[in-house]
Specification:
143 residues, alpha/beta, Oxidized Rhodanese, domain 1
């Protein structure tokens, strides 16, 4: 690959730490305090209002085609690409992250907090698009 100066630290991370050398901080997103999302009813109120809510759909193309999308200004950044695309997200607008069942959206939310999104400007949809539809709200089909 063209690299000419490659080094290997024989003692590994354990040896590095035992030597008292600094390490980076790792973030375990699953161990963070649980964060409450918003209900479909609350989201519908935000979408009907003049708040300018952006929806962030983190599902893959197959689940979008199967379950449809919530009507509104939707950005589609699959979860597996969020770490590369988050810089394109609007930071000055309300952002609601959603997935199928509300299982991955809290993780995406926590990730966005670690890259310095304002917690007052972002949230996630509790129960995802399935809960949205169960609550009687329409979804758009995805071609």
């Amino acid at each position: 690959m063209g690299y000419i100066r490659i080094y290997w630290y024989r003692e590994g991370l354990k040896g590095w730490e035992e030597a008292g050398l600094p390490t980076g901080k790792t973030i375990d997103l699953m161990q963070q305090e649980p964060v409450a999302g918003i209900s479909p009813q609350e989201l519908q109120e935000k979408l009907a209002g003049s708040e300018g809510v952006f929806l962030l759909d983190i599902r893959d193309d197959n689940s979008r085609a199967q379950f449809g999308a919530i009507p509104g200004k939707t950005l589609h950044y699959p979860l597996f690409r969020l770490h590369k695309l988050y810089s394109e997200l609007p930071r000055n607008r309300n952002l609601v992250v959603y997935d199928i069942r509300g299982k991955q959206a809290p993780i995406a939310f926590q990730y966005l907090l670690t890259v310095h999104f304002d917690p007052a400007m972002i949230t996630w949809l509790d129960g995802g698009v399935e809960n949205w539809k169960k609550s009687g709200f329409a979804s758009n089909s995805i071609e």
